[in-house]
Design goal:
The chain contains seven helices and eight strands; from the N terminus they run ααααββββαββββαα. The chain is an alpha+beta fold. The strands form two sheets. Strands 1, 4, 5, 6 and 7 form a five-stranded mixed β-sheet that branches. A three-stranded antiparallel β-sheet has the order 3-2-8.
Amino acid sequence: MRRVLTRVLGFDADLAVARNERMLWTHAQAMLPSVDIDFAMPRYTQGLMDLGASLCVPRNPACPQCPLQSLCVAHREGAPEQYPVRTRKLKRRAESWWLLVLKDSVGRFWLSRRPAAGIWAGLYCVPVFSSRPDLLALLCELGHACVQSMEECTPFLHVLTHRDLHLHPVVVRQAVESKLDDGGGWFTAEQIAALGLPAPVRKLLAGL
């Protein structure tokens, strides 16, 4: 029935969006029989289903034989197969990221640019690791003399369109300034305010 209704009405909103689905059914209700309902309603419903199964099929619809041809917007447009519009829903994924928040003795944070593609593309960010051991391995490379203190903060969830990021911040205060080999640098709070940062990272740094 959706296929028949969207073609007749020329309804091109994405039916993967719930509000568009509701809008289509609002239009459909306005088209229901209003006289002799007990007799007309079953025939109307059955007629739409038969039409969708026999003539108004997904591929190569038989428009010349369709009794609704003169009313059909999709037929007039010459593009019935473009209806209904329904994008493929993206499957949600969950990932865990460990965020290394390096803070030096004068209160600056270490930031570097994210890759040009992917999540947070091109934004400044603290170093990101896919696991806790990877993060700790980097700290070992820096040397214990550089680390004044380390605090594992409470993890939190950041929800993206098709992905749930479970973020695990690890705040490391350095006694001796060091540099990472990621093209980044040390930034003051004033400098950070002028940079593009992911919202959860900006909020995290503002609280430290």
